């Protein structure tokens, strides 16, 4: 991948209420793009995710995030980096509404998550697909069943589940392994299954939390190439990682956290600051 440039992104000064009022996107679904029905890409000018003056203090007094301002445009690919305890996990918890910020606004697709009624939380979470380091697959279910389960728990009609699962398994290259259980798969295949599960409900945002942490270097690059392909289909990707080699080689946008602060937000950056 060639460098995208070295400019530093400035924190947004837009009024929060104007951000919240952004109309819903008309971007076509992954289904349409995979089937080749459209070459539409996500609008790079529209913010999918906005954090404005976000501070997070846990009940035990720990200050995990401090005055965070962050704008993620639709279709962006962002590496989230920083040492353990920097605030990456807390940021992810805010995005999936596992936690609510102590102060500030977290706006996803035009909706302020802090003011979201509890009954609407499952719906907003369907806009996000999450990929974990340890895969979190159901060991007694096949690859196909693991992916289908993500739709079954949301009440998707049975007639729509089969085609959707077959489609994403083809995308991640697991059609031939559909009937195998996780113990029969390599680590890379298990992670591909987890990515398929995250994709199957057409999310707007994929959050990958150390997705290559348990994989060898060659397989790690294959998983990265798959995430880049998904991003090319218009899905916004945020990847939390400690893999300095991958971040520096790909030269995508890098958001670096340290002690809860955003200390760097740079397009085309390396894992470490280059002065």
Task: Walk me through what this model shows.
The chain is α/β, with parallel strands linked by helices and 275 residues long. The chain has two domains: 1-127 and 203-275, P-loop containing nucleotide triphosphate hydrolases (Rossmann fold); 135-202, no CATH class. The chain has helices spanning 16-20, 30-34, 88-95, 121-125, 143-152, 158-172, 187-199, 217-232, 244-250; strands at 47-57, 63-73, 77-81, 103-108, 111-112, 128-132, 205-209, 236-240, 253-258, 261-266. A six-stranded mixed sheet has the order 6-7-8-3-9-10, sandwiched between helices. A hairpin with a 2-residue loop joins β4 and β5. α6 crosses α7 (187-199). The protein starts with 15 loop residues before the first helix and ends in a 9-residue tail after the last strand. Mean pLDDT is 85; it is low at 1-27 and 34-41.
């Amino acid at each position: 991948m060639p460098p995208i440039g070295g400019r530093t992104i400035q924190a947004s000064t837009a009024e929060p209420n104007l951000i919240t009022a952004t109309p819903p996107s008309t971007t076509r679904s992954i289904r349409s793009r995979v089937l080749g029905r459209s070459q539409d890409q996500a609008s790079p000018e529209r913010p999918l995710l906005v954090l404005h003056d976000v501070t997070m203090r846990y009940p035990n007094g720990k200050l995990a995030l401090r005055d965070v301002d962050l704008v993620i445009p639709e279709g962006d690919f962002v590496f989230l980096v920083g040492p353990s305890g920097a605030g990456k996990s807390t940021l992810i918890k805010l995005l999936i509404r596992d936690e609510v910020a102590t102060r500030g606004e977290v706006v996803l697709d035009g909706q302020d998550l802090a003011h979201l009624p509890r009954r609407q939380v499952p719906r907003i979470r369907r806009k996000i697909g999450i990929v974990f380091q340890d895969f979190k697959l159901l060991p007694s279910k096949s690859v196909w069943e693991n992916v289908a389960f993500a739709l079954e728990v949301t009440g998707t009609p049975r007639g729509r589940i089969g085609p959707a699962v077959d489609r994403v398994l083809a995308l991640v290259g697991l059609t031939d392994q559909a009937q195998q259980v996780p113990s029969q798969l390599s680590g890379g295949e298990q992670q591909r299954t987890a990515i398929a599960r995250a994709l199957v409900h057409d999310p707007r945002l994929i959050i990958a939390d150390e997705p290559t942490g348990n994989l060898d270097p060659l397989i790690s690059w294959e998983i990265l190439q798959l995430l880049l392909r998904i991003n090319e289909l218009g899905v916004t990707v945020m990847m939390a990682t400690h893999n300095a080699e991958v971040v520096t080689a790909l030269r995508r946008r890098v958001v670096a956290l340290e002690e809860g602060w955003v200390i760097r937000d740079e397009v085309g950056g390396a894992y470490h600051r280059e002065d």
